[in-house]
Write a structure and sequence with these properties.
3 helices; mainly alpha; rod-shaped
Length: 115
Amino acid sequence: MPEWITGALSILLVYFVQDAHQSRKKIKSYQEENDEEQNKKLDEIEGVLLAQNKQNIYDLYTKYYLDLGYMPGYLKETLHTMYKFYHSHGGNGTGTKMYEDMMTLPHEPLKKAKK
């Protein structure tokens, strides 16, 4: 093969390798930016879910612990699921105290003594 063809092919090969490298860098940069943006959105969603869970725990506490004095078993299961999320995502001690108080409640209202 003539030297000028070998030289031209070498130049083309170098060009394509450099172009592929630059393209790979651009793709990686785009992916990193996209990942950052998605992580930011996920953090925001997580914050909203945490706030909503805290409010739900507070509402259950107010109704069942403070007002009624009992909590049905199915609601305790729901509370447990909400609390696990709340606690694992940085919920504070206030939610823990409310959770523990509610888990000690009876499942049904206490029967009043007959007169």
